[in-house]
Amino acid sequence: MSTLGAACLALAATCTMAADKPTDPQIAHIAYSAGVIDVEAAKLALAKTMNADVKAFAESMQKDHTAVNDMALALVKKLNVTPEDNATSQALAKAAEEKRTALGKLDGAAFDKAYVDNEVAYHKQVNGALETLLIPSAENGELKSLLETGLKLFQGHQQHAEHVAASLK
After folding, report:
1. Taking each helix axis from N to C terminus, what angle separates 3-17 and 87-104, rounded to the nearest 10 degrees?
2. What architecture is domain 3-15+23-168?
3. What's this model's pTM, rounded to 2 decimal places?
4. pLDDT by residue (tens digit) across 127-153?
């Protein structure tokens, strides 16, 4: 399992086992952090890949996750909510940095496969966390709606990543 995949499992386990469900400010920070992680991974892929399918996938990750994060920032500003850093966000950021470092050491087909495989695993974990924890825990209707919209988009990302992964085998 990838380091990032392990962090996402930890995300679900940590939040699920916590005495209290995550608050809306914590959910906003977790969701935003997860988007930033995927944008950074996409930037790395765009700098390293020569594969047209991987490049197109990375471009869509960068564009879509930036757009969702922009909507999230606009929403927290509108609601006058400050996203709250938390152990889950910190674990995600640490694992993502470790994964980017590992991916940065790879080139060519080995990089492409590792990047896309990680994207499949990452989206499975994030989508699972959205479905089972973040959306049900969100109390603000607008935040919940944004998370639901993100889930639909990210489920499409997972399918796209799976399709690209199959073409790399």
Report:
1. 170
2. Up-down Bundle (1.20)
3. 0.87
4. 999 999 999 999 999 999 999 999 999
